[in-house]
Design a protein that fits this description.
heterodimer, A: 438 residues, alpha+beta, 15 helices, 32% helix, B: seven-stranded antiparallel sheet, five-stranded antiparallel sheet, 34% helix
Amino acid sequence: MSAAMAAALGRWVPSGSVVTGEAAETWRVGGRRPDAVVFPTSGDQVAAVVAAAADEGWRVVPAGGGGWLDGASAPGTAGLTLVLSTRRMDRILDYEPADLTLTAEAGATLATIRSAAARHGQWLPLDAPPDDEGTIGATLATASSGPLAAAFGEPRDLALGLGVVTGSGQALSPGGRVVKNVAGFDLVRLMVGGWGVLGVVTEATLRLFPRPERDVTLLLRCRDGQRAARAARRVALGSLTVPALELADPSPTGDADAIVSCRVLGSSSEVEAMAASVEATDPDRGWQRLPAEEAAEVRSALRAVDTRGQVVLRLTLLPALLGRALALVGELAGRLGLEGAGAVETVADVTTGRVRVVLRSGSSGRHVDLAEAIRDLRDVVEGEGGSLTLTRAPAALFADVGRWGPPGSVRRLIDDVRSAFDPDGLLPWERFSAEGRR
Amino acid sequence: MIQPSRLSAGLGQRLRKVVGEDGLITDPNRLLVYESDGLTIHRWSPAAVALPTSTAQVAEVVRLLAGEGVAVVPRGAGTGLSGGALGGDAAVVVATTRMNRILELDPDNLRAVVQPGVVNAHLTQAARPLGLHYAPDPSSQSACTIGGNVAENSGGPHCLKYGVTSRYVSGLEVVLSDGSVVSLGGMGREAPGPDLLGAFVGSEGCYGIATEIEVRLLPLPGGVRTLLAIFDALEDAGRAVTRIIGQGLLPAALEIIDGPTIRAVESSTFAAGYPTDAGAALVVEFDGVEAGLDESALQAEACCVEAGAREVRHAREPETRAALWRGRKKAIGALGRLAPDLLVQDATVPRTRLPEVLARISEVGARYGLTIANVFHAGDGNLHPNIPFDRRDPDQLDRVERASAEIMKACVDAGGTITGEHGVGVDKMKYMGLVFDAPMLEAMEAVRRVFDPSGLFNPGKVLPVPAPAAVPTEVSG
């Protein structure tokens, strides 16, 4: 079957653009090897591949580098599965430094964009996990962001325009190249965070910023998470809008130091003033300014936390409830018997109240307990106005718990938006419908 | 022009039961207030106006209207500039002006929850004692409502640095056309599925009515510096903007007022002391940490001088800053006094294309014998060419419309778009084809149908199809 797929696809993409069999092994979707992986080199080819898949009745799972092909992406039906990776569409198509706008193909990595912008003293302030090797297409499709979003905006605020091929094979170009645009209904914000369920992102026009003159990271070590949470909240409630404020707790049971990391950006005098005001929040003067190299190490360690375990949750509560969120993580760890440094790792974005929780040792053995514990925690968190999202997990856990909790009043809207762009269910609609069993 | 209301007596009675005797307007004289928005060229008088005071009332009103197939047109303060909140004689306007309570100010989470009829500036006034403010600041902020801002995804001079409304709306409660109440987004939670909240903001009253709005607040800036640079030529002001951006500076606002606008302001009651022989004035504002401000202001001043500014004025205190801003803030008001009507455009172009587009606008104006006065957000390329005219003169009206169309086309050809912050409404529907192909228009229509399968919410707006539910009494027709 795979050979037939490759032959059919060969009509639309250059030779060497389709892999099958063993070569598709690294593109497993939710534990299952796809029947083929195709690497188109243009938006037109993406449209042709999607149209061909519709004719043949294949399922299409959009991907960039393959980092998000987890359990929630797995097509639930039998049929043939094609992973469509935009990885070979990695060109910068247009860059006008004086307009602070850059257009890149979906497969361009954040690193590619970073080095292009750096030549003109600019940057794309998007520090999505796990690192700069992620493609812009996947970063936007999953609406992934990091602590810089507090000051510079979420992916949807940075994307000015997109190229998209919908599930019905239609090429669309919502948005544009200007920073202010209210012409017609906004489809950019719908596609950013669309998880490839509405369409395949093929290119993006992004808003860049002047690279700040100075970039300083301050670090505060605290004996436990609760102390760190209080210290972080003092900074958050100060008179400054802090660019990036994170808390990392390597052990919810309190066996290791927690840290608060605060990144301040701006001109020399601004950074001095902001750093001084951060330092003043701790009566014991515990904040230290990190040397550049160490700062970069701390930042990448926090950013990549998601990759350090098989099961990653995102627990979100209002920012003022940060201490409560950490306590809930502690209860979860206790219930699962995940004790000791490193068994559960927590990184919180203090400004948004998003807490990434990595469950490590023991999290693979007792599936039933784990699923039940996560579901119970979700009930508690939702009862307090928050949410619990499963971001990485084995396929079985996704099937049991679901990526999100029940959609409630917006269920019809989600279903109808999906079928408006992908009426035949070609794309991995399971990503939206997977809400777990109860 | 004034006709008896076309609302059936039975429906009127049922609506009154929901919103009270004084909550429903059907008297044709009182309906005149609602026949246009800030763009008076379009006039459609509604069959009635309902003034609900709660989400439950909005839901019930929508249910009653939808049940009889009557169109529903959401409206805030009516300060819009695209004819987006006009009813037509088969529609009922649902105005949110009585839903004007701030429900929650939550400094611990830097957020507020408001009803849609809360006036934009009132929110910042209420938040200021807590050291906070609401960033989006449309020029009409002393009158416009947050609900209207959500519908239009409004901008303002300071969105150069802070971004537009969509960045600050974190959650919504919305009444859909079947009368159901749904909750979109919400701070402190991740909403499942696609970004329905993001899609709703800017939907111009076509997706539903927002009945509760959660917004993000920001700490008040530690300090502010305002510069007013006077130039002999508009092009020089444009070059100053390019230099400022090229220096890597990020001002909170970069606003240009051209010569004709300066002269209109100075000859009005709003006179701000700008030199009347100037070709342009540029307002540059920096805000943020006090420590960096003087340095930024000095750098920007040098950029202005290098670009040929003949004079640069400075201010740091609220009163003196307001004086420098006066000419900008009162520009539209002053232009409105030059002639019975004022056409306000809102195209956006990539910043680097501003000089050529401005030259083209001036050429178009000269060719059609029209005065075109430009007031614009130079930092983000958002133009507001304004044309004072008299719609009673058919020849003038024709020239204005043809000049408008040429200007729109020039902006789109330069890589821009037809509206940056005012919305499409009825006014720019005819230009949608310039920026979007048929598949894009169909995709937008498909999303509209997801939110409003009935097609009863604000019909005849934004998308060139389908046809309006009622024949509008449009003046230009």
